[in-house]
Amino acid sequence: MSSDQSSIVAEGFTDTASDYDDAVRFNIGGAQRLIISIPAGQYDDVIDIGCGTGWATQALVDRFHPARITGVDPSEGMLEQFQMKVGSIEGIDITLAQGDVEHMPVTDGTFDLAICSMAYHWFPNKWDAAKAMARVLKPGGVLAILCSGRGGEQIYRDILANTEPMNYTWLGAFDAVQRDIPEMEDYLLQAGLDVNDIWMERRVRHTTVEAYMERMRVVAGHLIGDQSEGDVAEYMARVEKNMHEACGPRGWTYDFTKLYAIARKPS
Description:
The protein has 267 residues and is of the alpha/beta class. The chain has helices spanning 3-23, 26-36, 55-64, 76-86, 126-135, 154-161, 168-177, 181-190, 209-220, 229-246; strands spanning 45-49, 68-73, 93-98, 111-117, 137-148, 194-207, 252-264.
């Protein structure tokens, strides 16, 4: 990840860190299912890469209760939320490290388990990111990833595609972040890992336009770039109008696809 891209994403999530938990509470269940899918074993040293506010670490503690956990995130605001949520868990040594995935300030070959929950899709260099995560694992160590899967949120993409003037940055963001099973398998194999399992989960959600747009503000605010606040507000007002027109009897209905992957570093 370039320093410019890393800082833009980090600053975006720092700005919305205090709102993150309320806006994307669906991610709690996804993090729990990721942790449940990790092979049984003893994981004393764990790293949570792109740790965010700590949902995945909370689930990890509940299942494995490791001796030491390192939370890494480029966002200072997210690390502050992580510290408040899990930093004082009794009996576990919690370490925080600020940095992006390709430049994690940790020692290679240190961890029994690396988890990455709802962060991988924001890494612009996904092959390099997989290699960086593989490097920090001990031989035999496990990597568990949860990220956005290919094909989700199509109705919102259709709204964007038909709201003019066209916003190519926001439209292209979906292609940049969503991944499919063969792509994830390639990342992991090229990183020298043995793939245990990769699978997709698709859910249909019903919410309000306002709640959906708050989620987008929290998780994707950094995509606004150098557009003025006035231009963004005007554009989003048109998008929300079109979304309300597309609502059915259960409100704003959309699908969301999650991609899970479990791999192991050869012994």
